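Kindly inspect the following:
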Amino acid sequence: MQIVRRIDWQASQKGPEAYFTGSVRIDPLFPAQEGSRVTGALVTFEPGARTAWHTHPLGQNLIVVSGIGWTRCEGGPKQEIRAGDVVSCPCHRRHWHGATASNGMSHIAITEALDGVPVTWMEKVSDADYLAEVTP
């Protein structure tokens, strides 16, 4: 067993403007261990903040730990997510996630890389897509 102390390997960082809209903080939780491709991070979105459209070659699991957010897979409805929800983003499905317009949201993102690539980033989510009606 190994105890990973975050301070020993990476500090908090601001979500890069190229991949996020609004104020986002990424707190790495654990790096991939020897023989593994899985990493984890706590991602905190202020109200109105969200990711750009993106895909994951091996999928991603999000554990919502606080607040209220929205997520959408391309071709599907925009859905509300809340603390306690687990969101499984399928492999290679274009999607986005973030806070609602009036509430912040934090989730733990668990992602597996393929050939060293955990995510493929695309264009930013338009305000029209972001503010579209939520489907229950």
In short: Residues 127-130 form the longest helix (4 residues). Residues 16-119 form a domain with the Jelly Rolls fold (CATH 2.60.120.10).
